[in-house]
Amino acid sequence: MVRAHPLTRSFRGRLAGVALAALAAGGFAHAQDPQAGDASEETVSQLSLLAQSADNPFSALVGKRRERSTFEDQTPHGVERYVLTSDDRAFLFEERGRTARVRFLCPPGDARIDCRLDASGPSPEIYLLTATRGPRGDVIYKTDEGETLLRIAAYGGATVFWPGETQGIAASKSFGDDEPLMLAPQSYDTAQRRAQSASAQVSAIVGSAISFDVRAGQRAAGAAVLADAVLTAAKGIAEVADDPIGARIIAERVRRVAFLPGAAPGVALNGSVLEILYVPKQDVRGRPSSAKVAHYLEQTL
Fold it and tell me: Cα–Cα distance between 99 and 191 in angstroms, integer?
């Protein structure tokens, strides 16, 4: 015969006492008020669930863990710095429960457009990721477009898919005191400066004049989101234009990239104008990612 743990027996005894008291109270209420039948049935149902939980003393812990996980989706856990084992490149990782953010830092001479678009300094894109459970307890982080960027092993090691590279690279934790992965405050002048730089660099990549127009956001709040939207749009277009066919089609179809405040981030083609919709007060989530811009161009042009 399997004997119940003394703590489990004690817990069941207390539960039985609570159940009897509640049933008695429910029966009394039912006798006083004929309409209380539903409440009594609900009480019995709840007690039944409690009785089932009593058979598993860890169920309460599971419930607390589930509640905590929901809360942590909105709460940063601190920024961790990783360094690639193959060279000195580094990236920052910030877990937020089932979501995460990652930023691939710019080493000297990095050719990525988000590393050289702003003359005041590199501003690499912040990627928004969703976690899924992989084999052997690994956690896999993917973009909204389904691209795997990071795999964290159960023992703490990481495999990263650096932007522009197809092979995973091992990385290990390093030391750092880095700020949370959020957009730094920016002025409209920053957005305008980036737009001018993007016009020149994207036109050179595509082989045809394309202007980046941020005038619609001149009087709107949230210049940081606008400035970041310029960066991610330029990066998405450059990714598609990296292929000669993609560059030719963009040159034929797009003349202007207009940034418009809206209720939700998005991308749309209106004649020869590529419209980038952004939400001024939503931080990183308020603009389309470079992957979303690139995906839209590949599917539409």
Answer: 28
At residue 102, the pLDDT reads: 98
Beta strands in the chain (DSSP E): 79-84, 90-96, 99-104, 126-133, 139-142, 148-152, 158-160, 169-174, 211-213, 256-261, 266-270, 273-278
Are 300 and 269 a contacting pair, CB within 8 Å?
yes
Note the pLDDT tens digit of each residue in 214-263.
Answer: 999 998 888 999 999 999 999 999 999 999 999 999 999 999 999 999 99
CA angle 180/181/182 to nearest 5° reads 100
Regions of the chain where pLDDT drops below 50: 1-72
Neighbour-count burial for 25-37, b at 16+ CB within 10 Å, e otherwise:
ebeeebeeeeebe
Say how far apart CA 234 and CA 228 lie, in whole Å: 10
The CATH number of domain 79-174 is 2.40.50: no
Contact between 163 and 236 under an 8 Å Cβ cutoff? The reply is no
Residue 220's pLDDT is 80
CA-based R_g, the chain, Å: 27
Q: Tell me which residue of 188, 187, 196 sits closest to 234, measured CA to CA.
A: 196
What percentage of residues in the chain have a pLDDT greater than 90? Answer: 66
Q: Give the global pTM.
A: 0.75
211-213 β-sheet, strand order: 211-213, 256-261, 273-278, 266-270
Parse the chain into domains and list their residue ranges: 6-69, 79-174, 188-300
Which amino acid is residue 130, in one-letter code?
A: T
On whether the CB atoms of residues 127 and 103 are closer than 8 A, the answer is: yes
| 6-32 vs 37-54: helix crossing angle, rounded to 10 | 180
Query: What's the pLDDT score for residue 41?
Result: 43
